[in-house]
Amino acid sequence: MEVQAIYDDGGMQWFEQIGRLEQIENDDAERNNTIMGAFEIHKATKRRAKLRLGMSGPAGSGKTYSALLIAGGLGGRIGMIDTEHGSGDLYADLLPEGYDVLPLAPPFTPARYIEALHTLEQAGVTTIIVDSLTHAWSGEGGSLDRQGKIADKSGNSWQAWRQVTPEHNALVEALLQSPCHIIATMRAKTEYVQEKDERTGKQVVRKIGLAPIMRDGIEYEFTTFLELDVQHMAFVGKDRTQLLDGTIFKPDVDTGKQLLKWLDSGSDEIKVAPSPMRDEQKIELIDAINRAETVDELFNAFSTAYRAATALSDAAALAELTKVKDARKAALEAHSDELFGVHA
After folding, report:
1. DSSP secondary structure of 73-133
2. Counting runs of H as helices and runs of E as strands, what totals does the chain give?
3. CB neighbour burial string for 199-238, b if at least 16 within 10 angstroms, e if fewer
4. What is the pLDDT of residues 126-157, one digit of tens each?
5. Whose CA is closest to 102, among 116, 85, 118?
6. Alpha carbons within 13 A on the beta-carbon side of 24
7. CATH code, residues 52-264
8. Which long-range contacts (CB under 8 A, 24 or more apart) does 80-89 make?
9. For residue 342, which of 159, 153, 151, 148 has the smallest C-alpha distance?
């Protein structure tokens, strides 16, 4: 009878158990809705896009020449960032409509490249040729140069990369987010091979280009990536358009027209309206940067700030946060120099 009395409670225990299960299910459903709400699922749709073309090759392979011909096929106003000591002006009569040149001298920091990109964008060009992107990596003031100098000063190579990598990533992001078509040339590591000439039967020496002189994996950032040889022939190493994949050809104006047709053959591209950063969020990020006591802490604080500003497409906030970061970095370096007696 006592056992019966325990369970004969008018169903209260049953309701309590079921209620708990329902509450768990409701909590799970609410949690799932919250998680799902952070993402958007839509039917895959081809949309209009801007070209992101990378080209690498050894000296004499015709990178600049080929880039201009392809840009001519894309149409519109062309602007070139020239880091090759005036070579951008050598082909002034190549295109009937001509093109503009923005000479870029050392130091070849990623920040100066970004500034040059924005200058051409604001000038109204529709296609930007970066000739060449290699200097941002291995040129005077480029990422390798900066990393080496920071490592020599701090004695910590890993810490040096932690400062340089965000700068390099910011340049890649600027290339990808540009409203213009982008054609970026890169020098290639050169090697000489000896082979038999089928026509004469004699051994000849031939120059070939290997990997681009740029940070590993740069090819993955582009829609299409071409590797040029000294005969000015392009091998297509990567091609998301599937128009040129696996082919070997000589780039010309028709190449640009062919790519443009594919780029324009879709619905309107998605345009994300810029959303300014809230003042409270900016103040919090600035405070975190200014509280950094070490370069590592500064790297982490600025990385958070950079991602937040980039996600909102707020260039003004990014510029302000970068200025605060630079000031804090200078203060930390000055303090470090005093500790080690550099200014003694």
Report:
1. HH-S-EEEEE-STTGGGTTTTSSTT--EEEE-PSP--HHHHHHHHHHHHHHT-SEEEEETT
2. 11, 9
3. eeeeeeeeebbeebbbbeebbebbbbbbbbbbeebbbbbe
4. 999 999 999 999 999 999 999 999 899 888 88
5. 116
6. 6
7. 3.40.50.300
8. 80/128, 80/129, 80/130, 80/131, 81/113, 81/116, 81/117, 81/120, 81/128, 81/129, 81/130, 81/131, 82/131, 83/108, 83/131, 83/132, 83/135, 83/139, 84/131, 84/132, 87/131, 88/64, 88/131
9. 153
Q: Could you report the per-residue pLDDT of 17-38, keeping only the tens digit for each?
A: 555 555 555 555 555 554 444 5
Q: Is the pLDDT of residue 2 over 70?
A: no
Task: Provide the residue ranges of all domains of the chain, joining segments of one domain with +.
Answer: 52-264, 279-339
The DSSP element (H or E) to which 227 belongs, if any, is strand 224-228
Tokens representing residue 230 in the block: 């000294």
By residue count, the chain amounts to: 344
> Are 184 and 222 contacting, i.e. CB atoms less than 8 angstroms apart?
yes
